[in-house]
Design brief:
Structural class: mainly alpha
Distance between the termini: 24 Å
Organism: Pandoraea eparura
Protein name: Phage/plasmid-like protein
Radius of gyration: 13 Å
Low-confidence stretches: none
Shape: elongated
Helix content: 55-70%
Number of strands: 0
């Protein structure tokens, strides 16, 4: 979790865990890219997208 956010505040839920992984401010906006277009492409199709998909898949297994 991010500093300053207690686990009890976010709760121990799949939604909270997924939110930590896919937080666009951290995952997509702070990656090093040459331009805004490259940043958008990385978020939608690159490592950011793959990480988000893996997080969603893992969260869905918790619901089964």
């Amino acid at each position: 979790m991010f500093p300053g956010l207690a686990a009890s505040a976010a709760g121990y839920t799949a939604d909270a865990a997924m939110g930590e992984v896919i937080d666009e401010n951290v995952l997509d906006n702070h990656c090093r890219v040459a331009s805004d277009d490259h940043q958008r492409d990385a978020a939608y199709f690159g490592a950011g997208a793959a990480l988000k998909q893996n997080a969603e898949d893992e969260a869905m297994t918790l619901l089964d």
